[in-house]
Amino acid sequence: RAKKLGRNNSQLFAEEMHHEALNQLTLEADLRRALIQEEFLLYYQPQVEISTGRIVGLEALIRWQHPKLGFVPPDQFIPLAEEIGLIAPIGQWVLQTACIQHQSWQAEGLPPLRIAVNLSARQFHQSQLIKIILQTLEATEIDPQYLELEITESAAMQDVEFTIQTLQELREMGLHITIDDFGTGYSSLNVLKHFPLNTLKIDRSFVQDIVENSSDAAIAQTIVALGQGLKLQVVAEGVETPQQLSFLRSIHCDLAQGYYFCPPVPAIEITQLLRQSDFSLKVNPSICS
Ligand code: C2E
Ligand code: MG
Ligand code: MG
Ligand code: MG
Q: EAL domain spans which residues (predicted)?
C-alpha cells in the first residue's frame, strides 16, 4: 500500500484500469464455462398476498456460485452475459430449471404456485423467445398460467410496437406478464394502456422509505391506484419491515415480496416451507430464517 501511495494519480489510475480489465476478462472466461460446469443455481423468493398472508407465487432469481469468488451477484454478471452473447443460453437454462422445479413440486402434490422468471432486455428481444418458451412449456407440461415473465419497464419501453406484439402473443399462450421495477423507467401512461399485462411491480427504491418519505408514499399509492384502474395486480418488492407492510396494506397493494417474509432461498428450503406452513407466511414471517 505504501508503495502504491508513492505513485502519481495517473499511474494509479492506469493500474486500476488494468486490474479492472483483467478482472473483466477473467470473469468473462469464467462465465463462458459456468453453464457447462453447472455453477448456476436458482433461488426462489415467495410473493405473499397481503390480505391473507398466503404465498401465491415465487420469483426465481439466478445465483452464480463461482469456484473462487463465491457468489457473484446477478447485477454483475447478467449485464456481462448480455454483452458477450451468453444471455440466451443462460436465460434458457433459467426458464427450463424453473419449469422443471414447478413440475417436481406438482408431482409431490403441493398446490401449484406461479413461478416468475426475469427476462433481461436482450432476452426479451431475442427472436427465438416465443419458440423457446413454447418448447419449455411443452417439455415440462406446465399450465402456462403458472409461468410468469418479469420484464423491466425500461426493456418494455425500448420498442413499444415490438413489446405490444410480443406481449400479446405471450398472453395468448396463457402466460402471466409482469412489468418489473415499475416507476424507474419512462412509461407514458398512454403506452402502458396498450400493453397486455397482468401485474405491475413497484420498484424497491420506492418501498424502502415508504413510511418516512411522503413522495415515495405518494408514488406507491399512485401505482396502486393505476393498477386498480387498469385492472392489474400490484406487487411491492423489497418489503423489509412490518411498518412498510402496514402501509402497503393501507393503500390496498395486492402482493408483497421481501426479506420481511423471506429472502430468496434454494428450492429445497421452499419445499420444506411449503410442506410445513400450509402456504401461509402470516403467522411467522421469519420462518425462512
Ligand atoms: P429484480 O428482478 O428486481 O429482483 C429483485 C432483487 O431484490 C433480487 O436481487 C432480490 O434478491 C432482492 N430483494 C428481494 N427482497 C429484498 C428486500 O427485502 N430487500 C432488499 N434490499 N433486496 C431484496 P438479486 O437476486 O440480486 O437480483 C438482482 C437483479 O438481477 C434482479 O432484479 C433481476 O433484474 C436480475 N436477475 C436475477 N435473476 C435473474 C435471471 O434469472 N435472469 C435475468 N435475466 N435477470 C435476473
Ligand atoms: Mg424481478
Ligand atoms: Mg424488480
Ligand atoms: Mg428491482
A: 24-278
- Average pLDDT, consecutive stretches of 10 residues, N- to C-terminus, the chain (289 residues): 57 68 81 96 97 94 94 94 95 97 94 96 95 96 97 94 97 97 86 95 97 97 96 97 97 97 95 80 51
Question: Are residues 178 and 150 in contact, defined by beta-carbon separation less than 8 angstroms?
Answer: yes
Name residue 44's beta-bridge partners: 60, 265
- Burial (Cβ within 10 Å: 0-12, 13-18, ≥19) of residue 1: exposed
Asked if the interface predicted TM-score (ipTM) of this complex is over 0.90, the answer is: yes
Instruction: Evaluate whether 65 touches 39 at the Cβ level (below 8 Å).
Output: yes
Which positions ≥6 away from 253 have C-beta within 8 Å? 50, 202, 220, 224, 234, 235, 236
Angle at 88 between CA 83 and CA 94, to 5 degrees: 115
Q: Is the pTM of this model over 0.90?
A: yes
Ligand 1: lining residues by beta carbon, under 6 Å: 45, 61-62, 73-75, 78, 91, 94, 118-120, 123, 150, 180-181, 204, 237-240, 258-259, 264
Q: What is the DSSP string of 203-224?
A: -HHHHTTTTT-HHHHHHHHHHH
- Expressed in angstroms and rounded, the spacing between residue 203 Cα and the centre of ligand 4 is 5
Beta bridge partners of 152: 180
